[in-house]
Amino acid sequence: MENSILIALSRQVSIKDQIDMVANNLANMKTSGFKSSKVIFKEYLMPQAKFNGISSPQQSKLSYVAKSKIIIDFSQGNLTNTGNPFDVALKGDGFFVVETNGGERYTRSGSFKRAEDGTLTDLNNNPIMGDAGKITIASNDTQIMISKDGTITSNNGIKGRLRVVKFEHSEDLSGIGNSLYKSRTEPQKVEFPEIAQGMLEGSNVNSVEQMVDMIEVLRGYSRVNHLIENNHGLKQKSINKLAQVNY
User: Fold this and answer.
1) Tens-level pLDDT at each residue, the chain (247 residues)
2) How far is Cα 30 from Cα 90, in angstroms, rounded to an integer?
3) Has this prediction a pTM greater than 0.70?
4) Whole-number Å distance between alpha carbons of 144 and 160
5) What is the DSSP letter of 179?
6) Cα–Cα distance measured from residue 119 to residue 125, given in angstroms and rounded to the nearest whole number
């Protein structure tokens, strides 16, 4: 009975991970550039116990639930017109490059702003990287225009060009929060990006699918919890019977 409880508990842990993932997706439905994720699980077979290096032929392996990986859906979100000259949206493949304390990170969110010192940043004050480094837009720069290829101009001329990169394998990317991603591999430059000024890419979260997933996950939790309660009841009955025999 102990084994069945441990197996059920491993399933409950996996269900908690699923609930956290679905809840995070739903919480970011209105977050610019957010990409929905789902967690994938695998079977973990507990190795057989051995005595003097020999396994018991009657003992079968125990099957537990273990987290395998997190899959991020990088499909395009809907574009919304904001009219803000510092808002930009990527159409198709690519990521903007953001400089953080932990190094370069990547995002689909094009909600930018001009900091007090003129640096172009994201909403968390992380500098947005251009092909030649940080982009500075002075206070006397007006008529800000961002062309389709990411070139930024003002009444004072060219200010820089947004750096846009892509990755050969999207599974190399992992989320770190605030619609930012880090990668295990070096990115490739997107030579001809398609950027729209005054627009933002919305989240690609499908609320209906997420709610259906949440219902299924909660049903799974209820079934596992029922199994654990039944197991506990059987154990209690066994203890009571043993007590009656000994008496």
Assistant:
1) 466 666 666 777 778 888 899 999 999 999 999 999 988 776 666 665 554 555 555 556 666 676 667 889 999 999 999 999 999 999 999 999 999 999 999 999 999 999 999 999 999 999 999 999 999 999 999 999 999 999 999 999 999 999 999 999 988 999 999 999 999 999 999 999 999 999 999 999 999 999 998 898 888 777 777 776 666 656 666 666 665 655 5
2) 17
3) yes
4) 12
5) T
6) 9
Residues 6+ apart with CB under 8 A from 179: 28, 31, 32, 33, 34, 35, 107, 108, 109
Taking the C-alpha atoms of residue 7 and residue 228, their distance in angstroms, rounded to an integer, is 10
Helix (H, G, I), strand (E, B) or coil at 87: strand
Q: Which DSSP string do the residues of 25-69 spell out, in sequence order? A: HHHTTTSTT---EEEEEEEEEEPPPEETTEE-TTPPPEEEEEEEE
Rounded to a whole number of angstroms, the CA Rg of the chain reads 26
> CA-CA distance, 21 to 43, in Å (whole number)?
20
The answer to whether 210 and 36 have CB atoms below 8 angstroms apart is yes
The CA-to-CA distance between both ends of the chain, in Å, stands at: 24
Query: Across the strands, what pairs with 49?
Result: none
> What's the rounded Cα separation, in Å, for the pair 111 and 106?
13
